[in-house]
Input
Amino acid sequence: MKSSLPIWASLLALLTTGCGTKSSIPRTRNDVFRDRLQVETLFLTADGQRFVRPMNPERAIVAEDGSLAWPAWQCNNPDCPGRQPDGGPLVFPWPDPFQSVGADGRIVVRQPLNDADERLFEKFSEQNCPACLPQRKPAQESKTRRQQYKDWCQPHVLPAAAKRLAELDRELEQMLSRERQPAG
Output
């Protein structure tokens, strides 16, 4: 009687040869955007606790002590009074006043309900460096100067995240380039 091991081994080899290869399903823009959300992000609490986690749709995380932490921002103003001793930018959170932690430990977002909330929302909606703001007079600034202060505030990107984001940007650009090419 002939052994069935060679046939069985052949079947196993056929089944496993595709395991290490890329999927034949092309990636989509949504795949790239989803991957961007998975990039490691520095989150900061209002009191300066630091956490590195993937980004998420809530754009916040609940810290171990139950407080909220938000993605870190940085001030690129060359004259920022909060610059680090080594010349690096001030890194700070941009707390959302309409987010809180619910009784179940999840992030709760409420909508502005009254005039005071509307003013708070307007104040929150404009990025401001907490170190630069005390030396400014926003009501007296020109639109151009005020925009410059807003532009100096940028999301802080960790070095490893910058590398991954650049890879994803290249992948998205390649997708867009293929889409722009005429079919034929």
Q: What stands out?
A: Confidence is low (pLDDT under 50) at residues 1-18.
